[in-house]
Amino acid sequence: MSADTESETSQRRSGPRIGMVLKGHYPPDVRVEKEVRVLVAAGYDVSLLCLGGDDDPERERVGGATVTRFRRQEKYGLLQRGVKTLAYTATLSDRIWRRELVDFVETDDVDVLHVHDLPLVQTAQDVADEYGLPVVADLHENYPEAVRQWRRGMPRWRRGVQTVVAPVWRLKRLERRAVARADRVLTVAEEARAHYLRDCGADPRTVSVVSNTVDLDVYDPERVAPIESGRGDAAADDEFVVGYVGSFGPHRGIETAIRAFPAVVDAVPNARLLLVGGSNEPGYDQGLRELAAETGVGDRITFTGWVDAADVPGFMAACDVGLVPHVSNAHTETTVPHKLFQYMALSVPVVATDVGPLGRIVRDAGGGRVVPASDPAAMATALAALGDDAELRDRLGESARRAVVDRYAWADDAETLVALYDDLTGA
For the region Disordered, what residue ranges are annotated (predicted)? Predict the structure, then answer.
């Protein structure tokens, strides 16, 4: 969703002030945008601290929240950043962010700190302890296991450095401590909640699921127009388009889809694999392109690169089938990506691997097909069957949309989020 940005104006304080913390740039961030919108509508004031780019205002109103940004490299010299990085390596508490958080809490008169993702939770908890504030840890994924997967796509030298500086076992220890100290923990799936209860000793009363479901007004098949083939980055109208939209990485299973595609093309000659997105490692993306060329059907596989966030619904709507081909590991078994619900909301049938929440949700919705992870032959069989049967695709797409409306709607997760804050703040 593209946020409407307005200049900052003084506003009457309407309720407890939530101070969100995001170790990244904002906007865009789909999950954060949804949470901000819901909490503001419920009467909470929301401020947000994040990183800033060269052209970003230091302070502005975005989608109802007061956003404060700082430019780490501009504000802190090389030596200062180096010293504090070494300190972070030793403690996993970020002293630069700690300083910014203190200013943020005092300037915005924050009542609750809401921290997105694990890396800054401990830092925020240290500041919160000084000011007597509760902390909500919004854990978008099993971060230690996610790091393990991200490193697989890095050059060997970089992977080695990161493994020495922040080994996964230290991140797991950080996760256990953060979950134990947090007043509330948010996660995206029941499987992730079970992980925090089982592996981190979390109190069941403090862990809630607010999933990556979608705003049905944004992902509405009656409103979203498919990206036109004339732009050159989507497929022709008469093609059977199998699409993947999102980040690339070894754990995403895109290699499985590419290896499956020769058999799909044999069965459905007009099939096209549309890969929208990329990774943070150019070498990894190039490896995927080389793999596509090696299959012999490289001309039936399109790489668009990154696209504007506003165009994502249009690319998804251009697909006859949406892919979520995750491999199975401790990260993917406990997470669910936005793309699953986005495809479903747009009435696009899904082929997903039998990994954690993916298989559970697709089966429950009756909105696609579930195949074993890392099995190109099984994926090819499922895709070929859908390519040959437009009526089946329509039925599955309708079931997917109906399930999102009835059981996997953001409105339900929004109620959970607001109820959590009402309980925490006594509002």
Answer: 1-20
Distance from C-alpha of 255 to C-alpha of 234, rounded to nearest angstrom: 20
d(CA 408, CA 361): 9
Residue-wise pLDDT tens digits, 89-144: 666 778 899 999 999 999 999 999 999 999 999 999 999 999 999 999 999 999 99
Q: Residues 6 or more apart from 349 whose CB is under 8 A from it? A: 320, 321, 322, 343, 367, 368, 369, 386, 393, 396, 397, 400
* 137: three-class secondary structure by DSSP: strand
Q: For residues 324 and 401, what is the distance between their CA atoms, to the nearest angstrom?
A: 16
Task: Answer whether 375's CB lies under 8 Å from 352's CB.
Answer: no
> In whole angstroms, what is the distance from residue 203 CA to residue 115 CA?
19
Q: What dihedral do alpha carbons 47, 50, 54, 59 form, nearest 10°?
A: 10
Is 413 exposed, middle or buried (CB count within 10 Å of its CB: 0-12, 13-18, 19+)? buried
Query: CA-CA distance, 174 to 93, in Å (whole number)?
Result: 10
How far, in Å, CA of 421 to CA of 18, rounded?
9
Task: At 404, give phi and psi (nearest 5°).
Answer: -65, -40
Instruction: Put the strands of the sheet holding 271-278 in their side by side order.
Output: 301-305, 271-278, 240-247, 321-324, 350-353, 368-371
Rounded to whole angstroms, the Cα distance separating 387 from 241 reads 9
Q: Extract long-range pairs of 262-265: CB within 8 Å, 24+ residues apart.
A: 262/295, 262/296, 262/297, 262/380, 263/376, 263/377, 263/380, 263/381, 263/384, 264/380, 264/383, 264/384, 264/387, 265/297, 265/300
Scan for tokens 């995927």, then name that residue. 288
Which one, of 223, 208, 212, lies nearest residue 404 by Cα?
Answer: 212
Helices (H) and strands (E) in the chain, counts: 17, 15
Token look-up 């939530």 returns: 18
Q: What domains can you pick out in the chain, each with its CATH number?
A: 5-213+410-425 (3.40.50.2000), 229-406 (3.40.50.2000)
